[in-house]
Amino acid sequence: MFIVSLFALLDSDLSFFHCAQIMWLHRFENDKGKESKATVDATDYMVYQYKPWSKKWYSHKFKGPGVRYEIAICIQTGKIVWINGPYPCGAWPDMKIFRHRLIHRIPDGERVEGDKGYRGAPNKVRTPGMAVSKADARAKQRAAQRHETINRRLKQWGCLKQVFRHDINRHGVYFGCVAICTQVALRNGEPLFCTKY
C-alpha cells in the first residue's frame, strides 16, 4: 500500500519524503571514526533519444542515450545518504557531477570512497589506488561491491530498467520514488550484506 501511495504522489512535491528518508547527515550512523563515511558512484539509466540526436546524452555503458545519477551510501549501514541527478550522460562524467554539488558537502578531514571515475580530488575522494594496505584494499573493494548492490536494486524497477520513454523532465521524479522505496526496504527487513570497514 505504501508503494502505491508513493507513486500516486508523482504529480506532487516529493521533497518532504526525500528529505525524511535520504539525508547526507545519515552517513554518521554507526560511525567508527574513519575518515571515509560513504561510498559514491554514478549510475546510468536508458532514455529515449528524441530528435535531434545529441552526443551529450550518450552513455558508453550501454552505447545509447541516458541520464546519470550520483548515489552515496553510508559505509557502516548501507543506507542511501545522497542522490543527485539526472544529468545527460555524455556531458556529465562522474567527476564533473561530484564537483557540481557533493564535493561542497564534504568537510575538511573527511573523504568518500569512489571508483576510478573520481580521480582528481584526492583530498575528498579515496580511489582504488589509494589503499594503504591489503586489508584496506579488501575493505574498499567490499564497500564498492555493496554499493553496486544498491545500483542493482534500483534497476530492478521497470521504470529504471527499461528505456524511459516519457517526458525526460519526469525521470528524476521516478528515480526519487524508486530511491525512497529502496531506502524504506533497506530500513525494514531487506538490508545489504555486512562489510567490515
Question: How does this structure look, described?
Answer:
Helices cover 32% and strands 19% of the residues. It has 197 residues and is of the alpha/beta class. The chain has helices at 2-8, 15-21, 94-100, 134-154, 158-161, 171-187; strands at residues 36-46, 58-59, 64-74, 80-88, 111-113, 125-126. It has six helices and six strands, in the order ααββββαββααα. Strands 1, 2, 3, 4, 5 and 6 form a six-stranded mixed beta sheet that branches. A hairpin with a 4-residue loop joins strand 2 (58-59) and strand 3 (64-74). The radius of gyration is 17 Å and the shape is globular. The chain has one domain (2-187).
Structural topology:
Layout: H1 2-8, H2 15-21, E1 36-46, E2 58-59, E3 64-74, E4 80-88, H3 94-100, E5 111-113, E6 125-126, H4 134-154, H5 158-161, H6 171-187
Parallel strand pairs: 1-5, 5-6
Antiparallel strand pairs: 1-3, 2-3, 3-4
